[in-house]
Amino acid sequence: MSDPHDDEDDDYEIDEETRALAFETVDVAPGLTAVLAEHIADYDMLPHVYFGDVSRWAEAEAARSGGSSELVALLALLESSYLTGNGDVQNLIDASFIEMVEDNPAIVKLLQPVLLSRVQPYYRPTKSVGYPCPVCGYSNLKEPPRLPGGGGSYEICWSCGFEFGVTDDDNGYSYLQWRERWIASGMSWATEANHPRPKGWDPAAQLASLMD
Ligand SMILES: [Zn+2]
After folding, report:
1. Is it the case that residue 199 has pLDDT exceeding 70?
2. C-alpha 126 – ligand 1 centre gap (Å)
3. What is the CA(211)–ligand 1 centre distance, in A?
4. How far is CA 48 from the centre of its chain?
């Protein structure tokens, strides 16, 4: 019968790279400064324990802001660290961050490709989870563009910027006219500032899906 404490007491050493990553988190996300200070006061530095706190901070940040620049910067740091780090760094990010947040769609949708690939498949966003945009083919509208009574949803398509019930009813554009306008302008993501485009977003493939 083994006592789990034996393993830790014997020769557990904190990998330097792992430790460095823990301290780097506050450089990109100053909001973690107090979290780190409290952790140091309690534990000196135990990266896995600290990353549990980082996970909770990230969840609170996602709930508060939907994706603050600090949270986005933290996720970028973890993405690059996962790519360049040693096995201990990868294990830290896998076990004490991804596993903590992977059931939280607000965070998962902000993950870059490598970390997204570490999320359990059943938590990953499915290819099409919403209603298709009849203008540009974007697959993830939250509501049907026209409601059962015939009125517009007033939802703005993040991809092409069409607002159902306004762009058509008030401004007089048909779906086809707006689509041609969007194509002519280079099929750019319409709402970059508020809703960053999905990783790997492919407007041409999305548009082609309309023709299927
Ligand atoms: Zn659209």
Report:
1. yes
2. 18
3. 14
4. 22
Report how far residue 77's alpha carbon sits from residue 54's, in angstroms, rounded to the nearest whole number. 13
Residue 19 lies in a domain: yes
Ligand 1 centroid–CA 131 distance in Å is 10
140 and 109 within one domain = no
Q: DSSP letters of 48-112?
A: HHHHHHHHHHHHHHHHHHSS-HHHHHHHHHHHHHHHHS-HHHHHHHIIIIIHHHTT-HHHHTT--
**Residue 141 alpha carbon to ligand 1 centre in Å:** 8
E runs forming strands in the chain: none
Gap from CA of 159 to ligand 1 centroid (Å)? 5
Task: Please check whether residues 37 and 90 belong to one and the same domain.
Answer: yes
Say whether 143 sits in a helix, a strand or coil.
coil
pTM for the predicted model, two decimal places: 0.56
> How far is it, in rounded angstroms, from Cα 111 to Cα 95?
16
What gap in Å lies between CA 184 and CA 1, rounded to an integer? 70
Which pLDDT band holds residue 12 (cuts at 50, 70, 90)? Answer: low
State in Å: Cα 113 to ligand 1 middle. Answer: 24
Residue 40 Cα to ligand 1 middle (Å): 48
Q: Look at residue 142 and tell me if it is in a domain.
A: yes
Range of the domain at 113: 12-123
Q: Are residues 138 and 183 in the same domain?
A: yes
Cα(187) to ligand 1 centroid in Å equals: 10
